[in-house]
Design brief:
Structural class: alpha/beta
Number of helices: 6
Mean pLDDT: 82
Strand content: 15-25%
Strand order of the largest sheet: 2-3-4
Number of domains: 2
Radius of gyration: 24 Å
Largest sheet: 3 strands, antiparallel
Number of strands: 8
Amino acid sequence: MTMVGELRHLDGIKGNMYLSETAYLAPATFHERGKPASQIIYSNVKEIVEHQTYVFDTLWTRAIPAEERFEQIEEGAGHEFVQIIINPQKASRILSELVKSAKEEVLLFLANDKALVRIDNLGLVDHIIKMSREADTTIKIISPLSQENSEIVNRINTRAPSIRILTSIIIHLLVYT
């Protein structure tokens, strides 16, 4: 008999729970590996079971199949992730760190023409130009082009012709029902 139909992985999760259609059980205290928790939480209250089922389903949909994670580990590859960052200062810092840590390829997809101006103000355009000259790094920038960022585009084309700049048109689609 198979105990686990599918196993998934989600970074950063500590702890566990046991959930059925009618009951919820979870350790209330941390315990040593291989030893049971000294205290547990149990509930068969319908609303609590429903809430914990919602929590489980949310975690499950964000997790990746264990086989995929095993392959990533065996290949020595990192894993992909998506993170929404609302704080502009934090977004700028993370973008800077990511661009500066790139080894093989940089692909920047910029939502509007002002974004190229912003990354130039962060000093990232100069860093990207330097990367293209010193390393065997593929660099592509996809951005709407305008008068506002034309000076930056000209500077990139002049100082680093190996950087590909592709224009994009952002189309906003409204659907009325």
